[in-house]
Amino acid sequence: MMERSLTKIVIAGGGTAGWMAASALARFLGPSCSIHLVESEEIGTVGVGEATIPAIQLFNQSLGIDENEFVRATQGSFKLGIEFADWNEPGHSYLHAFGAIGRPLGLLPFHQYWLRYRQQGGSVSLWDYAPTALAAAQNRFARPQDKPGTLPSGVAYAYHFDASLYAAFLRKYAEARGVIRTDGRIADVKLHAESGNIECLILASGEVVRGDLFIDCSGFRGLLIEQTLNSGYEDWSNFLPCNRAVAVPCASVDPLTPFTRATARDAGWQWRIPLQHRTGNGYVYCSDYVTDADATDILLSTLDGVPLAEPRQLRFVTGKRSQIWKKNCVALGLSSGFLEPLESTSIHLIQTGIAKLLEFFPSSGFHQPDIDAFNKAMDFEFHSIRDFVILHYKTASRSGAFWERCRNMAIPDSLAEKIELFCTNGRILRFNNELFTELGWLQVMWGQGLRPQGYNPLADQLTAEQLQEFMHVAARHARHVAEQMPLHQQYIAANCAAPPREIRKASS
Ligand code: FAD
């Protein structure tokens, strides 16, 4: 007998995860499935999460969202990468730039030729071949307008946006496509006596919300996946010891930089995320090495504009839910796990969770092989991002007790192998289409100070003159692309400036 399709999805929580899920499910499931989202204004959202990676463009495009409209509505700005400052000695910085660095030739990636070039005395920085890095250094931005018959520009970008405005923007999108929203506190969750599946949510008002599939977007508390279904949590704080953050917005300053900044501090690192109407800031730290009060003082004393709100304290344990999908419940967002925001990956993990849920979308039977495959895929995503984030801590040469601990900590074998391979001949192994590309790994490994002993000997196939010319053309192309861009601020003013009324309202 054919199983029936699901007819009712319930989403618990209306932060970034809840509204991303509601929008995507409404878009891809259509009217055959009703979607009911319950959120509590009284409880509120986590209120941070404003830097993204380029893949978010795919999410917005899949919903048919107009990019200018979205940037305007969310007080957004463009992001060409992340600048890591002071992770080695004070004053040292490098960019993890999105987009290309040079171009591959034959069987080899660009950096293998660059490694040979350097060994033979070439002194040009890796980032002089990266159009986005050059543009970021000059505070320039433009969307790539690649033309047939010309070299691709090599520019890729993401966004900074106000998280609460993004949720509001998606709410409008989802409600216009039939999503029902209830403002109310979920007071209880009822399980089916035989199957152990979630049967319904019971709100404090007494309202009962029934469903076939439940999506837990309730944030760190994991109201359904943990508090009800006891999925379990893999704690990764032995690898990533930061466990707190303090966040505060401040007034914008000129210029409007097109990148996130992550500045290392004595007990962690500080983010700076420039939006149109304000700058988001936060200090992510390990409570063994600094008190909450001192962390707040450090944050407030290093802002580049006046604070616009009281600092907000947050606590977390880095790790992931043991089963992100259990029974008839799928966790998305903070309820599924948390990797600190060093590489701006949490919103991406929501997007991945939604994509995988659609790929393994259940019928009423909820088959275990589908659930297992989803969980395996999400495990892989979390683990590969975790390794990339650990890399920053393990290889930072900054002094101090916290950093000493990070340098001496044991790391996963998967990461140790990557580091060893790079340090031998500069090779980078990207497993199974993992999120961060060879170029991401390359920039962080090189930027943090790892140096390969050699390079792939296939790079010797170019003559010295050919190599010189190849490098020269790549650097000229990168400069040309960057110089053609207007200033980031000018680009926004011409294309997607938020209306002044919203600027006043949002920063008051
Ligand atoms: P929340 O925003 O916490 O939403 C939870 C929802 O559940 C709310 O609507 C709440 O009202 C509702 N809820 C909870 N309990 C109940 C109840 N009993 N009844 C009814 N409703 C309930 N990610 C990035 O990608 N980039 C970043 O730069 C970044 N920076 C971060 C910095 C920090 C310090 C932290 C902690 C996180 C950061 N993140 C970042 C992660 C990002 O904030 C989250 O991934 C994102 O905001 C999604 O959160 P959420 O929707 O899962 O949870």
Overview of this protein structure:
The chain is α+β, with helices and mostly antiparallel strands. Among the domains are: 8-50 and 162-234 and 321-384, FAD/NAD(P)-binding domain; 99-155 and 388-490, no CATH class. The chain has helices at 16-29, 56-62, 67-73, 110-119, 131-137, 163-176, 292-301, 346-359, 368-395, 401-408, 413-425, 438-447, 464-483, 488-495, 500-507, and strands spanning 8-12, 34-39, 77-79, 81-85, 93-97, 158-160, 180-183, 186-191, 198-203, 208-210, 213-216, 233-235, 244-250, 260-265, 268-274, 279-285, 312-315, 319-321, 325-326, 329-331, 337-338. The model is unreliable at 502-508 (pLDDT under 50). It has a seven-stranded mixed β-sheet with strand order 5-4-14-15-16-13-17. Flavin-adenine dinucleotide binds next to helix 1, strand 2, strand 13 and helix 8.
Order of strands across the biggest sheet? 5-4-14-15-16-13-17
Biggest sheet descriptor: 7 strands, mixed
| CATH homology group of the domain at 8-50 and 162-234 and 321-384 | FAD/NAD(P)-binding domain
User: Helix fraction?
Assistant: 25-40%
How far the N terminus sits from the C terminus, by CA atoms, comes to 59 Å
- Envelope shape: globular
